[in-house]
Amino acid sequence: MRLILLGPPGAGKGTQAARLVRNLGIPQLSTGDMLRAAVATGTPIGLKAKAVMESGGLVPDEIVVGIISERISEPDAKNGFILDGFPRTVNQAEALEAMLAAKGLKLDAAIELTVDAANLVDRIVNRAAEAKAAGQPVRRDDDPEVFKSRLAAYERETSAVTPFYRARGLLHQVDGMAPIDEVAKAIDAVLSEVAPA
Ligand code: AMP
């Protein structure tokens, strides 16, 4: 199963991806996680990405496309993967399509978690407060001002990715404002439709 989770920052992609990893036994490929790891270890990619990420902008396409191209070639992604946070531009979506086609592979579905943009800032403020209360590190880009820039980047660049997948008959939309369990059930319903057991 090769899946994409779409939706703005704070829509719950990471939460749902983690559950799908457990249920489907395929890896979650999060470009955000990979970039944060690169920043933390100070690799050349991390050095290039750091300032852009801190400002809430998008890292250049060639960097993230390169990362994903290497990652989907690893053995654990052979039977499928869940992309979380990629593609974020139509360019990235086209590059993904080309790299999969070169391997004779196709996507099964792009599942978009739809949300009410007005509620997202509240959600992210809660996410930061919960992480802090649990003694976990708070993402620097979950600062409300940076978060607004991330939302603006989504509107500007990533919203065009939805029609890209709709045009290919791969788009499935799920209400991301519903409780976590209901979102999970709706995603499972999509999965049984695209890949009946
Ligand atoms: P995320 O964890 O998916 O919210 O990503 C955190 C940050 O990493 C984003 O705000 C971007 O700066 C950067 N990033 C992650 N994925 C991508 C991508 N596919 N294209 C460009 N920038 C990305």
Identify the bound ligands: adenosine monophosphate
The helix/strand order is: EHEHHHEHEHHHEH
- Residues in helix, %: 55-70%
Unreliable runs, pLDDT <50, ≥5 residues? Answer: none
Percent in strands: 5-15%
CATH A-level architecture: 3-Layer(aba) Sandwich
**Number of contiguous helices:** 9
Short description:
The protein has helices at residues 13-24, 31-41, 44-55, 61-71, 90-102, 117-133, 144-157, 161-167, 180-194, and strands spanning 2-6, 28-30, 81-84, 109-114, 171-175.
Reconstruct the topology from this structure:
Layout: E1 2-6, H1 13-24, E2 28-30, H2 31-41, H3 44-55, H4 61-71, E3 81-84, H5 90-102, E4 109-114, H6 117-133, H7 144-157, H8 161-167, E5 171-175, H9 180-194
Parallel strand pairs: 1-3, 1-4, 2-3, 4-5
The site of adenosine monophosphate has 17 residues, from helix 2 and helix 3.
Description of the molecule:
Strands 2-3-1-4-5 form a 5-stranded parallel sheet, sandwiched between helices. The chain has a single domain (2-194), classed as Rossmann fold, CATH 3.40.50.300. It is of the alpha/beta class and 197 residues long. 57% of the residues lie in helices and 12% in strands.
Provide keyphrases for this structure:
Rossmann fold; binds adenosine monophosphate; 197 residues; 9 helices; 57% helix; alpha/beta; 5-stranded parallel β-sheet
